[in-house]
Amino acid sequence: MLELIDVTKKYGNKVALNHLSVRFEAGVYGLLGSNGAGKSTMLNLITDNIPRTEGQILYNGQEILSLKRSYFKKIGYTPQLQGMYEDFTARDFLHYVGALKGMKASQCKKQTEEFLDLVVLSDDAHHRLGSFSGGMRQRVLLAAAMLDNPDILILDEPTAGLDPTQRIRLRDYIASISSERTVLLATHVISDVETVAKKVLILSKGNLCRFDTPRHLIDETADLMRKEGQTPPEYLTLEDVYLFHAKENLSWD
């Protein structure tokens, strides 16, 4: 279990994340919000890539700062930033990441081929990363994050550069592994989370607007639309929910 208690991040006078308290168990959790909402800040705090200003982050009841390396071995992280070793091939890069994670060579090689196939890079695995497009690099980072079957999988815009068929394939894979681990999925592609998310967390300007199941958010929004004299679409989607509240600056009062 991963728990954030009153977590705040400030940059001078700017509040990037404002007293966030939330708990994640096994399952997929969708993180939604516009640019600057605080999604990447939250993920960087969970991975301790940046220091928090206030609050606690607990893994199975223990502060992650005290767990140190034992905690980081539990995490797979796909960031938006794509700093990589340009001269490595995709396959060599995954072998390198596996070694850093302490994987056995045979296990690492097996998983490398499995995940290269999953992200549709098997045919390009022998090419250097310096020749890859941004989307291809993102897919390599995604494969690296999944190595060694981490307990917490943190994905920041993981479907960038994927076509619709590849996105569905990845979404189905994420759903298939989520019963045994926590998956945090930050995305602008709302349809990526609607069918697989256990709960959806919506951030706006560093504040938590909502943390609930997709079904409940959809039903609640339909009721709000009726109260405002609007007729909800016959098949209201999570994207409709997000757009409806974005017009009101994501106010759920």
Secondary structure: elements and pairs:
Elements: E1 2-11, E2 14-24, E3 27-32, H1 39-46, E4 54-59, E5 62-63, H2 64-67, H3 69-72, E6 75-78, H4 90-100, H5 105-118, H6 134-146, E7 152-156, H7 164-177, E8 182-186, H8 191-194, E9 199-204, E10 207-212, H9 214-227, H10 238-246
Parallel strand pairs: 3-8, 3-9, 6-7, 7-8
Antiparallel strand pairs: 1-2, 1-4, 4-5, 9-10
Give a verbal description of the structure.
By secondary structure, this protein is α/β, with parallel strands linked by helices. It contains ten helices and ten strands. The strands form two sheets. The chain has a six-stranded mixed sheet. A four-stranded antiparallel sheet has the order 2-1-4-5. The model has no long low-confidence stretch (mean pLDDT 89).
Form type: globular
Integer-rounded radius of gyration = 19 Å
What characterizes the major β-sheet?
6 strands, mixed
**What's the mean pLDDT score?**
89
In total, the number of strands is: 10
- Distance from N terminus to C terminus (CA atoms, Å) equals 29 Å
- Share of helical residues: 25-40%
Provide the β-strand percentage band. 15-25%
Low-confidence stretches: none
Tally the helices: 10
Structural class: alpha/beta
Strand and helix order: EEEHEEHHEHHHEHEHEEHH
Spatial ordering of strands, largest sheet: 6-7-8-3-9-10
